[in-house]
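Justification of resources, computational component.

The compute hours requested in this renewal are based largely on the per-chain cost of generating structure records like the one below. Each record pairs the submitted sequence with a full structure-token output. That output is archived, and it is also reused by downstream analysis tasks.
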Amino acid sequence: MASGDAGPVRVGCHVSIAGSLDRAVERARERGCDVFQIFTANPRGWAAKDLSPEASAAFSTAVRAAGMEPVVAHMPYLPNLASPKKEGYAQSVGVMIRELDRCAALGISYLVTHLGSHLGSGASGGRDRLIGGISRALAESRGTVTVLLENTAGTAHSVGGTFEEIREVLDGIGRPDRLGVCFDTCHAWAAGYDLSGPDAVQETLRHFDNTVGFSELCVVHLNDSRGERGSRLDRHEHIGLGAIGEDGFCALLAHPAVRACPLICETPVDARRGDAENISRVRELADLCGNAPKASRHDKKG
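The structure output for this chain reads:
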């Protein structure tokens, strides 16, 4: 990688909406975020309290005032868009429609979703259900919010553990105007992709570009890993303190396709570090190792 005069990265973390949605913006500011991610409702339940026009306006006004766009939302934990269970699948699609509508009301650009589990019923069927569910949600929701497919850690029966499978889902849905990808570094490492240093990162990202395409990359979840490469263990660690390590993150943050994206840390909060410290460390590594960024899909989409 050639050295160059690097611009600043846009980095933040996932923040709580406890109390009211607009308080998430102040929490993001306190942590030093340029961008941030939220759940729009309780992530561990199926139901969500209706958004009032006043709450939506307060949130979007606070975001604009703070200059923290784009905001990223994440789907709740319970939905499974690849499930063979009819009732659970129907509920899951309904939640995605609801979340897309909530994001549109809040002025949120991106909704990240896990791709789900086929629960042992077969990868092909799970992929077809996922494609059908997201297609229906995009057709029946309001607004122009972009759904981001997040790569998984390759756990048993999961969909989306390989770049090839993500490409198949993108092609199956066929809505490039409303679809993109969120690349999670911990998940990629756990699924077997090497991010340990410059050569490994270049090869993995070359594979990503040849299979999925950098044009689809909208957001990066920047997380170190407690598990070894290929462990299928989805356990996040502080930036540089896990198995990926600082050499890997230097290489990632020097890559223009990664560097140009909003970077969201989903790292632990414990006695070693909090969110602010991880965000600060990302900026330090980006300054040490960064290249000048090129245009990303986010720059094109606004």
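The first strand starts at residue 10 and ends at 14. Confidence is low (pLDDT under 50) at residues 1-5, 292-296.
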